UniProtKB/TrEMBL annotation:
Keywords: Signal. Pfam families: Rhodanese. CDD domains: RHOD (cd00158). InterPro entries: PQQ_CXXCW, Rhodanese-like_dom, Rhodanese-like_dom_sf. This is Rhodanese domain-containing protein. Coiled coil: none annotated.
Amino acid sequence: MKIKSCTLPPLCTLPLVLLLSLPLCAAQAPSGATNAALFSIDGYRVAHYRSPTPASIDTAQTLGTRALQALLQQRPDAALLNVQALDWRNGVFIEQKPRMHLPGSLWLPNVGKGVLEPRWADYFRGQLKALRRQDPTRPLVFYCRADCWMSWNATRRAAQWGYDALYWYPQGTDGWQQAALPLERAVPVPLTD
């Protein structure tokens, strides 16, 4: 019996585990996503974080700059959560240059990655729990920069963990700055081992 060669060479070169995950990735990735290698099996973006994001997210309310300003007027206690990544080496955050973010924000680095190591998952869960300790309805607003999937991932993960009153500000610090609104120096919330 002669075995025919594969007629789709790119698929033939993929590992079996990746081939088996393709239908799951396509089903759970946002509509319009075509490259399964960009998403984990459970639907989080895992590569090319700085690229165009969807217009909205189904697990939260999407806000533009004016809508965010209105929310902050109505709920000044809203927690602004900057999730931009930051190098972590030998138990220390390493900043190459100063970062700016929306005034009053908490900077929770690395919690928007597609795959969270246990330390970052614990850090993220702990911060969310602390923010909701006094008021379980406190709005949580996730952002990073424009065209940044990390805030999309963080919003989605918070929803998966059972949080509600979630907001996603996809324009992030770039949109805030373009609206000529003030920014302040960002300092990461410490991670303790």
